[in-house]
Amino acid sequence: MSYPAPILNLDFVNAKQLAHPTVAFSRASIGSYFDSSGILRYARSGVPRFDHDPLTGVCKGLLVESSATNLDTYSDEFDNAVWTKSLCSVAADSSTAPDGTTSMDKIVESTDNGFHAVSRTFTIATGNGVVYSVFARKGETSVLQINFNSGADVIYARFDLAAGTILVDATCDGSGAIFSNYKAYIKDCGNGRYRCIIYAQTNATTSITVYNALYNGSSMYTGDGTSGLYLWGANLQKWVVYPSSYGKSTTSAVVRAADVCSVDLTKLVGPGGEALWDGTEGTIVVDFTVGLQVSNVRAISLHSGSSSNCIDIGILANGQLVCRSTVNSYAESYLFHGVPVANTKYKIAFAFAVNNQASSCNGGAVVTDSSCGVPSVTTLEIGSLISALQLNSTIRSLQLYNRRLADAYLPALSTI
Question: For residue 280, how far is the Cα from the chain centroid?
């Protein structure tokens, strides 16, 4: 099956660059990512990040994230005095960290009977999602317990660092008045290191103590004075429901700015300088991965500076994957493709013209709408909408056509 060439064709996985003069990118801070060797690296301000699977080295595409703040200070230094040590000591710089440096600290249990942990305390306002994560590797001890403690509520989860599994998902031990919607995750980062993650929603302004506790069949046990496990890269964020890329901190909280990537459609011209985009019709194909955040994100959008007139592909607040056309603040077209699964690849082909819109997802059946308008758009935004609603995941490729391709083409275009 043949169809015309796209006027814009971006392959982030193979090119590992923006690779087109009309593509603009900004991020007003450094940002971390994994390279093809599985090493955590830091991209300079304004430099795009092409993230990789730390286990396989395979490029996952362009990483686009919203702004985030790591509230934990001295995030790589558990020996620092800001960390409270409970029946344990810290042997600094005892193992290789995800960034390739020897900066992973060993948390060593004392010979006392009790709760062996390092901890920090923070004040979190009501209604905030709170995510804490830390990179961990087993030593003589292979189970890590992470607690959110606040008044009558304790949320805890246990992670098996030998098997790379969650032994106990986030569980509430208490009244249930302070925390809700809690969840634990674990991510294999290679070489025996795992990112252990716990999330909870706060229902009251509260002081939260985060504990990284060694676990040996019981929260309270008698240590041997030498056994322990390794920690690195503590990361506490609020106002979120997912962990973002790691932000290294020292004396103060560190902010990673949002990624914004866009194309000025008016600058897409042919060999004779003729404009290639007139905005009356088109087809866009985007290949992306849904991350842990499965609502209020966008994979692609076309607009003229306002969401009142836009075309977008993404996940709505209700969790539905959708292709949508909005004209004068009225969403004239909703083409739904079900509820997406976290950490899953999706590829969507969306063809649009007045009263003639259709889309296909992952080679599936074409969904159509014959009563809809097309907004006037001049900007294509990759992984966000009006510099917000970032995908918080990766985009592998996209193609833009200046024609409304036939429905018969869409399943083939959307096949991964």
Answer: 34
Q: Mark whether 162 and 271 lie in a shared domain.
A: no
The whole domain housing 285 covers: 8-66+258-413
Give tens-digit pLDDT for 354-407: 999 999 999 999 999 999 999 999 999 999 999 999 999 999 999 999 999 999
* Contact call for residues 299 and 395 (beta carbons, < 8 A): yes
- Nearest in space to 21 (alpha carbons), one of 367, 369, 236, 268: 268
Using DSSP's 3-state secondary structure scheme, residue 267 falls into helix
- Structurally, the chain folds into a number of domains equal to 2
Residues 49, 120, single domain; the answer is: no
Residues 29 and 78 in one domain: no
Structure tokens at 29: 């801070």
Tell me: pLDDT of 1 over 70. Answer: no
Angle at Cα 330 formed by Cα 328 and Cα 336, nearest 5°? 135
User: Any idea of the CA torsion for 16, 18, 24, 27, to the nearest 10 degrees?
Assistant: 0
Model confidence, pTM: 0.95
Element containing residue 406 per DSSP (H, E): none
